[in-house]
Amino acid sequence: MSMQMTPVQAPQTQASVVEWAIGRRSRDVDQLTSLTSVVKSTPSGFLIAVIDATQDGKPGCSAAKAAAEIFEGYTHHTLVDLFNRADRCSKETGGCSISATIFNTSYHTATWFGVGNVQGYLHHRSPSATPRYQWLKLQQGFVGDNRFQIREITNPVKYGDLLILATSGIRPDFAAELPIEGKPRIVADSLLAGYAREEDDALMLVTRYLGGTM
């Protein structure tokens, strides 16, 4: 089965809060995808999320879409509430792996949480940052099984810090390539080309924090 690489979306800027780009690679361009992402402004800053349904084809596509609608429609809520809502929704549509982050521009923080296999990686721009990078500690299971306990982690962020959410179709050793100079599109293109698994669909959301306000 041939691989199809979708052109990466150009970086988007929302009132100087973040800039971002999406990279996607599909085994079959005609197959319905179970991977999706959310990028949305919130009252406190900005929300990003990547969703990977446990099923393929039409059921997986429907499950991912339903979960994404929760994150898009309730951006004024906390991650705790968003994941609880998505968990209830996914019991009906099928489970999903989800990782999400809310940037707070007043306090310059990134609060994140994840269940399943969507990787989260935060790379601080400053070489003197301690630690220089952090991995999101994922909880086992999936959204929809009602077995996870939400424990948000909040990290300080500064201008230029890079946050990456990537499905299991991206090998985790991509972190060895960072830092990569350039816009998020350049980062996403480079990492997708070098670390996407041939046997799996892949999606990567690259976000750079700019520190502005809405």
Walkthrough of the structure:
There is one protein chain. This protein has 214 residues and is α+β, with helices and mostly antiparallel strands. The protein has a single domain (4-209), classed as PPM-type phosphatase domain (Phosphatase 2c, domain 1). The chain is 21% helix and 33% strand. Strand 4 (35-41) and strand 5 form a beta hairpin. Helix 1 packs antiparallel against helix 2. The longest helix is centred in the first third of the chain and has 17 residues, at 57-73. The relative contact order is 0.22.
Radius of gyration over alpha carbons? 16 Å
What is the CATH-assigned architecture? Answer: 4-Layer Sandwich
Structure annotation, total helices: 3
Highest-level CATH class = Alpha Beta
User: Can you give the mean pLDDT?
Assistant: 89
Number of domains in the coordinates?
Answer: 1
What is the number of beta strands? 12
Q: What is the name of the CATH topology?
A: Phosphatase 2c, domain 1
Order of helices and strands: EEEEEHHEEEEEEHE
Beta-strand content bin: 25-35%
Kindly report the name of the CATH homologous superfamily. Answer: PPM-type phosphatase domain
First-last Cα distance: 44 Å
Q: Level of helix content? A: 10-25%
Flag low-confidence runs. 7-13
Shape: globular
User: Mind summarizing the main beta sheet?
Assistant: 7 strands, antiparallel
Structural class: alpha+beta
